[in-house]
Amino acid sequence: MITSSRGWVYWLAWGFASGLVGVAVFLGWQRMRPSQSDVVPQVRLSPQAAPTEVPLPVGEAQLPDLGAEVSRASLRRRAMLNTLIPSRPRTKVIDYTVGLGDSVFAIANAYGLQPETVLWSNYDVLKDDPHSLSAGMELKIPPVDGVYYQWREGDDLASVAGEFDVALEDILAWSGNQFDLSDPQIEVGGWVMIPGGQREFQQWIVPVPARGSAGVSTGIYGGGACPGGYDGLYGSGAFIWPSSNHTLSGNDYWSGHLAIDIGVVIGESIVAADAGVIMFAGWSSGGYGYTVAIDHGNGYQTLYAHLSSVNVSCGQSVQQGQLIGLGGSSGNSTGPHLHFEVRLNGGFVNPWYVLP
């Protein structure tokens, strides 16, 4: 009986233990099993099904009532500080008052124009001579390159277009002229923009005779004109700067100004750019002021204008680098500078091509 009793207890204990293990396994499985909310249902769309339109809130009025402060903040946008606004082309003429130190070249460059445009558009005051510019002078600055023209008695569009070498249609098409294309009429004294218009310059230059030849008239060209018939030193053909400053101050070399304007200080030493013979020394008519011109005997001639004083005389031989005058602003000049010309066989050479 004892044996039988132990057998029963043994199997009862084993069954109880097995039940406990089963319960533990079930509970562990329940903890590891994903909940219904964690399961993403797979939705199979029909090929014919169309997407459903869902209305979205538009503007602040349809936002939920979260308070005015939150609502406005949610609609705030950052400003684009680098937004570029395209500039519109200018169609109006600008009135400009010439100041000290101004030049035709500098004024034109400031307005994005060719210097010829400023000269041609102010013929009544400049007479196509950039040296006639003076402080206080009133100029008209056109909006585009060409000629700003004042209508005269007897003018017509065809003749004016021919005079300035442009197509009549270019004048009519310029929006700034504001023509009635059905019947374009221009009153005498009125102003018309001739875009692209041009005319030949009437250059005023100081004549510099070659050594050994006859000189120029002092009555016409000023007291600095030399009678000629000289001989002396010859140049090397290699030039140096005539001043200590090597930068531009005023006009550059262009069709209306066959020289460069070098910045100088009044009283600064001006030297000969190469050896040669003095062929002009003194006052020059036509706006150059005190002027020195040198014939170098090799086809080259150089001219130095707007000096405050002249330190050489007609027929004198000078070495390269020798003092010939002092910097100034004499003649027609809006500020101190040296007008420096280089001529070759009667023609003009851009000084930038020969200066070191």
What does this structure look like?
Helices cover 21% and strands 19% of the residues. With 356 residues, the chain is of the alpha+beta class. Among the domains are: 102 residues, LysM domain (Membrane-bound Lytic Murein Transglycosylase D, Chain A, Roll); 136 residues, Distorted Sandwich (Glucose Permease (Domain IIA)), CATH 2.70.70. The strands form four sheets. Strands 5, 7, 8, 9, 11, 13 and 14 form a seven-stranded antiparallel β-sheet that branches. Strands 6-12-10 form a three-stranded antiparallel β-sheet, with no helix packed on it. It has a two-stranded antiparallel sheet with strand order 1-2. About 9% of the residues have low confidence.
Summarize this entry quickly:
The chain has 356 residues and is of the alpha+beta class. Helix content is 21%, strand content 19%.
**Per CATH, which architecture of the domain at 218-353?**
Distorted Sandwich
Proportion of β residues? 15-25%
Q: Mean pLDDT, rounded to whole units?
A: 82
CATH fold node name of the domain at 218-353: Glucose Permease (Domain IIA)
Number of helices: 8
Helix content: 10-25%
Radius of gyration from CA coordinates: 45 Å
Distance between the termini: 135 Å
CATH class of the domain at 218-353: Mainly Beta
Shape: elongated
Name the helix and strand elements from N-terminus to C-terminus, one letter apiece.
HHEHHHEEHHEHEEEEEEEEEE
Fourth-tier CATH superfamily name of the domain at 218-353: Glucose Permease (Domain IIA)
**Number of E-type strands:** 14
Q: Which spans have pLDDT < 50 for at least 5 consecutive residues?
A: 37-49, 58-64, 68-80
Mind summarizing the main beta sheet? 7 strands, antiparallel
- By secondary-structure content and strand pairing, the structural class works out as alpha+beta
